Amino acid sequence: MDNGKKVLSLHAHPDDAEFMCVGTQALLRQKGWQVHIATMASGDCGSTQYSREQVSRIREAEAAKSAGLLQGEYHCLKCNDVFILYDRVTLLKTIELLRKVRPTLVIGPSPSDYMVDHEITSRLVQTACFACGMPNIEIEGVEPFEPVPYLYYVDPLEGKDNLGTEIKPTTVVDITSVIEIKKKMLCCHESQRNWLLEHHGMDEYVLSMKSFARNRGTQVGCDYAEG
């Protein structure tokens, strides 16, 4: 079933969407939406075992496998971890992606989060949504489109901004019925288990994801939710 609508989640790194918003995308897929998952970077610094080139290949393959569980498509804009910049080149690449996908709805990172890559991506997404219909921004091979996509921002990690202040979401989605597919999608990123353990002290990253989703769910009276 395809109703012609498209949802694009555009985040900084592979597995960001799986932590924060693929439950919402799974629900939209059930209603006939096309699913696209994109990242600015390939996660080339997310390893203590592999070179940048090796881990990029591994993580892009994991991200594509995850998107495939929703019959979706994965896109990578090939930036480098920690060097996602708000500049002309990167912004044009972001606008180009939106014009290729032509999403109805875009889900981006929180404007205030623990990592600057996430915050810069949030600004890039905001401007790209605003500019994707401007005909005077010319990009070869893609045409401007309207209307401007709806734009929603996900929770910051653990629901706290870059100063540790708790953020209350304005929209919360009950994802109880799709928590298992969210889990399966996150598990596609198996290369990250050792990295998250060594760098963030996060041993069971699936349990961490479910714990945060459970906390959001408790706030609105369901088992699991995304904000």
Q: Care to describe what's here?
A:
Helix content is 42%, strand content 15%. It is an alpha/beta fold. The protein has one domain (6-166): Rossmann fold. A five-stranded parallel sheet has the order 3-2-1-4-5, with helices on both faces. A two-stranded antiparallel ribbon has the order 6-7. Helix 5 links the parallel strand 4 and strand 5. The longest helix is centred in the N-terminal third of the chain and has 17 residues, at 52-68. The relative contact order is 0.18. This is LmbE family protein.
* Sheet having the most strands: 5 strands, parallel
Overall pLDDT confidence: 94
Shape descriptor: globular
Which sequence of SSEs, written as H and E, runs from N to C?
Answer: EHHEHEHEHEEHHHE
Distance between the termini: 26 Å
Low-confidence segments: none
User: Which second-level CATH architecture applies?
Assistant: 3-Layer(aba) Sandwich
Q: Using DSSP, what is the number of strands?
A: 7
* Count of structural domains: 1
* Topology-level CATH name: Rossmann fold
